[in-house]
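Page header: ASSEMBLY MODEL / two components / 694 residues total.
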Amino acid sequence: MTETEFKGQDFEKSLTDATANVAEFDDSERSALRRFQQILHSTPSLVPLIVLAASLIVFGLLEERFFRAATLTLIMQQIAVVGILGVAQSLVILTAGIDLSVGAFAVFTSVVMGQFTFRYGIPPAISIVIGLAVGTALGAINGWLVAKVKLPPFIVTLGTWQIVLAANFMYSANETIRSQDIEAEAPILQFWGTSFKIGATTATLAVLLLIAIVIIMAYVLRQTAWGRHTYAVGDDPEAAELAGVQVKRQLIQVYALAGFFTAVAGWVMIGRYGSVSPAASTGQIGNIQAITAVVIGGISLFGGRGSILGMFFGALIVGVFELGLRMLGTNPQLTYLLIGVLIISAVATDQWIRKISG
Amino acid sequence: MHKLLLTSAIAFAATATGAFADTSACLITKTDTNPFFVKMREGAAAKAEELGIELKAYAGKIDGDNEAQVAAIETCIADGASGILITASDTAGIVPSIQKARDAGLLVIALDTPLDPIDAADMTFATDNFLAGELIGQWAAAKLGDAAADARIAMLDLGVSQPTVGVLRDQGFLQGFGIELGDPKKWGDEDDPRIVGHDVTAGNEEGGRKAMENLLITDPEINVVYTINEPAAAGAYEALKAMGRQDDVIVVSVDGGCPGVQNIADGVIGATSQQYPLLMASLGIEAIAAFAADGSKPEPTPGKDFYDTGVALVTGEPVDGVESISIEEGLALCWG
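Prediction written out in full:
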């Protein structure tokens, strides 16, 4: 429409004095609680951060040895694998999906890296690249089934979890590759287990890797078009489609990237446990551990809301509870009980925060 | 020790010759992923083929999966099998199903893991797990000598539900080491200050590493580590290595799998009590064959309420007063 036409019609004359604001929340008469709710709504990682700080303080008061550097770096080492699986899980859950296959993919890719090196004599660095490629391809298959075949993510990954875990046991013949053999012939497989000194205590490279991945992915999701598209697909796929996002391609890419991260976790597992074991518990419970970190981290299972940083705090909270309660000498079952309470509280809090927009 | 095993095996074989064309047997293991059960299945399959028995193998999905084992028993009864060999996941929970099978005329033999009560099965072919623990306990105490009085002991057990196998090994170790037991049916009730703590490992590397870390952070002076099995020991060793403690801690274990025995040669584990799953399975198949032929049931080892398939201490550093076999002998007999 040209300017002359616009003037000729004069329909919008009455708008000259109208308010230029399109829509806004009514900020007047807000109680402190309401304002707090608003802050939590705009910063979803704040709730898990507060819980993390509180649990650190409580365990620090109950057990003096808890607040030592050695304890805190140990927690970081213990959550490295779950944290990286949590990144993969977060990506999928942000698209309103769920990935039950992350743990199985991690174990299988670690077995691929080990067996390609030791069974076929392929140089370990190349085996690692193959392992990462296998993880990415498996993730892409999940994504293809979800996006193109239109199967629910729960069903797809329930299936691939079982398929990959069974393939893992058949392919590896249930044989463990010993830590000492890996150390002698293919030390690069154990790279992320390399320890270094921070002051008087030691940490492993896996800890730095986890922090780096969390920072990079937080940036990618917040600041890049790809990241915003991921949120958009999870929030409202139809609206995203109308806005020009290629929803199917985006979904396949998200699942493939998640698959890539599971393979990274597989590599990190070799560093942490030394050996390559097809019977690692991560294959069976890694998915639930990752979902737990994501949910406690305040990422909405309905998609489109939450942050990777929150997931990181969620994983740390679980780590703090597990080690803290063990140091206090409580029954290990109490840990699981309290984590269950945390999960329900986290989702209840999420529902309460969401009311702000309702 | 081997001679004893060998002669008893021959004695069994002698009672079970001939063809059993119509005989079928079931093997139900806790999982089909643990190398121990994989070997057990191989041993049973080889013996079944030799005797011309049809063998069907079932397994739970995960350790502790009672439902899958109940379903397997029902299938075996419906299938008209002559006998069942089972390593029970839930030793008490499985008993009613076992009773159904026995009522239906099947011979039920518990392998490796005794049922609760033990006489719920017709016979148990197993390692004496208490003795297995006792041997490594005695070895560790002898290795430390006078320092055993001030030992700092970490106990890496199987699971919080305290399965019998784990309790027997744990309590055997403590008794062998010279520690007064509380109730020998459970671990964790001892009040000897030398015990730093008990933690659980699920019997794999992941669990072993985490449990060792948890106990080391409680007491960095730990110098004796008992582990439920060799994968847990390998995980514990990684944790010790990360803290630079691998050379001044004694790690002992139970199982005798090939990677475990190799780990003794490499100095990861000091000593392990080796058990013989292949023998359990092949003896079990022979017992079912004998039962199918003339209704005879196997007898327990004199003085015990089960048939002892033997245990041997494997170590590169023998000590006085504890009988052991060398790493080479252990490698020749290892499984998995």
